[in-house]
Amino acid sequence: MNELTKRVVAFREARNWKQFHNPKDLAISLNLEASELLELFQWKSSEDAISDKYNDLSDELADVFYYTLLMAHDVGIDLEKALLDKLEKNEMNYPVQKAFGSNKKYTEL
Amino acid sequence: MNELTKRVVAFREARNWKQFHNPKDLAISLNLEASELLELFQWKSSEDAISDKYNDLSDELADVFYYTLLMAHDVGIDLEKALLDKLEKNEMNYPVQKAFGSNKKYTEL
Amino acid sequence: MNELTKRVVAFREARNWKQFHNPKDLAISLNLEASELLELFQWKSSEDAISDKYNDLSDELADVFYYTLLMAHDVGIDLEKALLDKLEKNEMNYPVQKAFGSNKKYTEL
Amino acid sequence: MNELTKRVVAFREARNWKQFHNPKDLAISLNLEASELLELFQWKSSEDAISDKYNDLSDELADVFYYTLLMAHDVGIDLEKALLDKLEKNEMNYPVQKAFGSNKKYTEL
């Protein structure tokens, strides 16, 4: 993942875009890309979206990942560690015994 | 990253949540987590958000990454390859000569 | 609708919140409220969401409307006229003959 | 507002789109339109967005309003009443004395 982060940072560096990329604007862009991903499913079932728009799906998910890596880099978050820490919290919030097969939030469990 | 994907899939497996996780609902959840990240910046500058809510920032970014990994896994996208492919497209859409220091979209360059 | 706009502006005025409400931040907040509305449907069918969370649905839709009215007010858009103008455009983009019963975007029709 | 609701419902009726418009998909579309509005502010100040994209702003806000009216209509919410009820709740959650000039959420006041 370090290698990927280097790639996206170098891409930005080459275009001198860091000036626009304050974390608040990165968070906005991450939302916009997540929406473009969701748009592929608009008025459709998962199956239809995947069969109609597979390449777009790959591109939009890549865009989400691109901004996730940039955000993590810029604010100094180790994304791998952040995920493992969050999983640990979720183990507490969603203990298997209570959460098994349930679609409830932990505050409702 | 394969290791991380295994971890998030195992977390889900243990809770029998796959039944809720059709790709359309994963795309919805990815959007909700991206919004929770953005909410940390609501009515604030980047600086204030980062100093007030650093741990939340890490958690929300982890949640975005969690659903990105699950989505990629479930629809059979190699996230690393997807990102590199997208960067290649972006090299074409945003050639350095035209895009340097510009905040325009490629359709406007 | 003018009366409603007056109410939301007066609510804000009384709290001296205009200082935070630049249009970009209003657009962010509108997105956050739209997400909270969507969250009521997370992992659920429409039917279950409506039966489980009807009051929340009303509140979240109200929040979306609240920011829509404020945004329109602050940037000087007549929301009623904007809607009628947009419907007219959509009449052109989605002519009944082509769009009838179709879930395609106008660029794909 | 009743008149506007009639107009958007008639627009949909003429195209036989009700079949796609379950409330969950309406909530998705409302989010997508809110994102398109936010996109006008991407990498920009409020001032630049408004001067560059005023007509788009009007169109996107109209789209948000369009789905807000449809959602309210379909699930049987009186939007005007919903807003007034929510303002009343917010009067309680954000009493002037505590909330004056503060950008904090009511849980933090």
Keywords:
homotetramer, about 110 residues, mainly alpha, 6 helices, about 0% strand
Extended strand count of chain A? 0
| Biggest interface between chains | A-B, 63 and 63 residues
Radius of gyration of chain A: 17 Å
Distance between the termini of chain A: 35 Å
Helix and strand element order of chain A? HHHHHH
Helix fraction of chain A, binned, reads: over 70%
**Which spans of chain A of ≥5 residues are poorly predicted at pLDDT below 50?**
none
Individual helix count of chain A: 6
Structural class of chain A: mainly alpha
Structure description:
4 copies of one chain form a homotetramer. In chain A, α1 packs across α4. The first copy, chain A, has 6 helices and no strands. The N and C termini of chain A lie far apart (35 Å). Chain A has helices spanning 2-15, 23-39, 46-52, 54-75, 79-93, 96-99. Chains in contact: A-B, A-C, A-D, B-C, B-D, C-D. Chains A and B meet through α1, α2, α3, α4 and α5 of A and α1, α2, α3, α4 and α5 of B.
